[in-house]
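G., before I forget:
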Amino acid sequence: MMSIKSKILTALGAAVVLGGAAVFYVAESAPAEVVLPDNVSEVTQSGATMQVLTNGVLSTVSAADTRGPRHLTNRKCDRAYTSAGTVVCLLPVDALVGTKLVVLDNKLTERKTVPLTGFPNRLKVSGSGRMVSWTVFLDGHSYATTGFSTQTGILDTQSGTVVHSLEEFAPTVDGRPYKAADINFWGVTFASDDNRFYATMSTGGKRYLVQGDFARKTVRTLTTNVECPSLSPDGKRIAYKSAIDADPKKGWRLSVMDLSTLRSTPLAETHSVDDQAIWLDNATVGYGLQRDDGTNDVWSVPADGPGQPKLLIEGANSPSPPA
Amino acid sequence: MGFPNGHNRTGKGFDMPSRRARRTTRVAVAAAGALSVTAAVLVAVASAPEAAAAATTFTPVADTYVDNSATGTNYGTSGQLGVDNSPVKRIFLRFTVSGLSASVTNAKLRLHTDDVSGSNSPAGGTARVLSDNTWSETGTTWSNQPAVDGATLTSLGAVNRNAWYELDVTSAITGNGTFSLAVTSTNSDGADYDSRESGSTTAPQLVVTTNATTTTTPPTTNQPSADPVLVGAGDISDSGSGDTATAALLDNIPGTVFTAGDNVYDNGTASEFNTYYNPTWGRHKARTKPSPGNHDYNTSNASGYFGYFGSLAGPANRGYYSYDLGNWHIVSLDSEITKSAGSPQEQWLRADLAASTKPCTLAYWHKPRWTSGSNHAPDTTATPLVQALYDYNAEVIVTGHNHQYERFAPMNPSGTADSARGLREFVAGMGGAGFYGFGTIQPNSEARNNNTHGVLKFTLHANSYDWQFVPEAGKTYADSGTGNCH
């Protein structure tokens, strides 16, 4: 039989959906009998869900009950994201086969694939579901080392345009056109117009926050020591990782920057966060953290500074905002 | 636990994993309750009895259930565990038993029924054994559930709501180690128990009783033993201090020292060997049997490596060699040169293993055939070497490359668990270099750590081996166990 708790949850959910004046005879001391037919078997995740990876398996969990039943698909990804019905997945790499970007619809039907070279790292979809951006490592595997190199690309799912590397774009550093062989990009986030974007650009030992223009193929620097920006739903702030003492070898503090003032606020998470954070809402940032045994968990932390991190989804990483 | 607040099960009993809260609690529990073999014994209602006795209680390190009416759904983080035959629900529990110093005389699985209507059942389920200890709490579903392939233990009769029940699982709990149990039911009116997420007062328990309360002195590393010791790690010396910490461990561990490649960073130059390796692990050079890694080969032909180790590294400029320790044949291989079937190295290995008269075999090289590390994918090109070792019934493979520690269950060359003839692979990349992250945890991975430098010590018995992760000073990560020769 179906677990009684699930039944009650389902009953509550149904009552809410129906908007009826249901009366619940439930209390700590004397739980009510809530009897549902046995054919209510599958726990449906009505309402908002969050997509995550569960040890590399594309999964969803109820946003309202992130510790409730988790639906695991058959699809394996090293990094995943979803927004507005566009689901994207960077396939795992093995010794012989490289990764590729797979774009799926919300029924997980493949719509497009883009073969890539490198190790999957970052992946994001714009709020509209149109612009897909990714970062892979070409050389090295860690932002904390020297001598690594990344490749960051963008797919416009509407036009089909693929920018294989942001290094094709014309950069401006501190207002001046710039050229260098050591430029790397990572961690793109798109604004609501699906043209303006933010990303990290590294060159000459500095890691800049750049603002980009997809149509004009340009990027310009705004400030330094900003990595993996993630634009808030209201478009006013970015959550990002800030290298401690501007030295990635010391780890990163998850921070939020107001884009109008470029003023930064460190968040309450004191563990080093090496992730492109997400916004659960305009007040809350979500991110993955790995335990010493390799198990990942998704945490949330207030976006304004004070407060405490909360464990959101155990045994998961690569979260997407509730949808 | 709160009711019916299924939306908010935060709070008691749910620790914060990355905060490293320890899950195992030790509570003295009365061992006096008479146990019948197959019948349910109602021990107490609502809370665990406490009394002084020679029993240790463990809570699960993982528990979940699967449901064949929701085949792709995982319930690992929920507060309950369902067992049923319609739909079919099976409970999986994993316990890590440690700290026992005498043999087990009794082990009981204790389950607490949910304090909700419908948690009762005319048949509370049957405890069974499974050999797979690598199933994941948050990733196990009906579709990918581990096989319940072990013995059927005992069964419960009727269970009531909000009460404790015990299943005798003595035959499954053989001592210290990791054990997975399943609870299944043939009754279509199932039972619901509290999971470890429900809180410490209702979480499942494994109560293990040993035959003596006397303090048995466990064997220590200082205890003289006739059996040879092989100790070492890979990914060792750079400009940092990690290798200083691991070399200090070697100072107190006699025996033969192995290296699993990447002896020095970044380029394997003679200067790096002299500057970084020689002052630390170099103190033990005379008893070292190295193997080379990709960084050693950053200097052409690994000339820095061969120049520094000389004849200790086997025939000049070849890269692979073997030797014997007690009843063991030890093979040092070179993952940085061709290892394909028919290659000189693979042909040499087959001939070498064929000529060996020792009953047990251990091999080491740099790049792991199996790894969950995020920085380097598994090296499938090592398969011909693994196949040769498997064909000759070898026991252990030690590698490095990903800067972390990982231990796998014995597997055959295709990566399937094989308790009869499988090779147990270790990734011992914790010799000193900076740590790497983990990616997707691969099948049959049994232990992992990436915050503790250390060395891996093998004690090579006549027909078995003990492994022990020895952590750097100030750290506590531990992993040890025993395996038999095939």
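The first helix of chain A runs from residue 4 to 18. Chain A has two domains: 1-44, 49-313.

More on Monday.
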